[in-house]
Design goal:
four-stranded antiparallel β-sheet; alpha+beta; 20% strand
C-alpha cells in the first residue's frame, strides 16, 4: 500500500464518521455545562441569577465571577434572516417571535430544541440543568436575553413552552448566564488525531522497508 493510497483511505474513513452531534458536557463538578455544538458554557443552575428586570439582569451577568471566569453575559438572539429582527409571530421559526426558534442564531432556542431535544409541545428534557421548570407556571420560567427588540422591550424565552417573545424590560424575569468557550483546562487528544498518527507511523515503516 502506498502512502497516497493510505491517506486516501484515511480521508474516506473520516468522511464516513459523519457530522458531530450536539453534546452537553458537565464541567467544574457539575456547576457548568458545555455545549459542544455552539461552543457555549452555561451555568448549570439556571435559577442562580434570580428574578430581575432586564437592565438588572444585564448588570448581574456582566459583573458575575464564577468558576474563575468573568466574561459571563445573558444569552443573545441574532436575526433569523441575518439582517434585522422579525417581530411578527410565526410557529415555524421563520421569524424571531413564536415557536420553533431552534437555529444557532438564538442561544436559548437552540439549547431548548437542538441540544436538549425538546419540542414546541413543551419542556420534557432538562439534561443536567436545574431551574428550568416552574411548577407554578406552565409557560415559565421566563429567561431574559440580552437582545433589545423595540424601545422598552427585549426578547425573552419561555422555557415551559419553548417560545420566544418580547417582554417589557421592567418585567421581572430570570437571569441566566452563559459564556463563549469551554471551561475545561486541557482537552484530551481526539481519537481521530490518534488514529491519524498511528496510520502515518505505519506508512512510514512500510516505506522504510520497501
Amino acid at each position: 500500500m502506498t502512502k497516497k493510497t493510505l491517506l486516501a483511505g484515511l480521508a474516506a474513513g473520516l468522511l464516513s464518521l459523519g457530522p458531530a452531534h450536539a453534546d452537553l458536557l458537565p464541567r467544574a463538578n457539575g456547576t457548568m455545562v458545555y455545549d459542544t455544538a455552539t461552543n457555549l458554557t452555561w451555568l448549570a443552575d439556571a435559577a442562580l441569577g434570580g428574578l430581575r428586570t432586564q437592565a438588572d439582569a444585564l448588570q448581574w451577568a456582566a459583573a458575575l465571577e464564577f468558576g474563575g471566569f468573568d466574561d459571563w453575559r445573558l444569552p443573545s438572539v441574532a436575526p433569523v434572516n441575518g439582517i434585522a429582527l422579525q417581530l411578527d409571530y410565526a410557529d415555524d421559526g421563520s421569524t424571531d417571535i413564536g415557536q420553533n426558534n431552534a437555529g444557532a442564531n438564538t442561544e436559548l432556542g437552540h439549547l431548548y430544541h437542538a441540544s436538549l431535544g425538546n419540542t414546541a409541545a413543551g419542556l420534557v428534557h432538562t439534561g443536567s440543568f436545574s431551574g428550568l421548570v416552574d411548577p407554578a407556571n406552565a409557560v415559565g420560567p421566563v429567561f431574559w436575553t440580552g437582545t433589545a427588540s423595540e424601545p422598552g422591550w427585549a426578547l425573552a424565552f419561555f422555557m415551559g413552552m419553548g417560545a420566544q417573545d418580547q417582554l417589557a424590560t421592567d418585567t421581572l424575569a430570570q437571569a441566566w448566564a452563559v459564556r463563549v468557550g469551554d471551561v475545561a483546562a486541557v482537552p484530551e487528544p481526539g481519537s481521530v488525531a490518534l488514529m491519524l498518527a498511528g496510520l502515518l507511523a505505519i506508512a512510514a515503516r512500510r516505506r522504510a522497508t520497501a
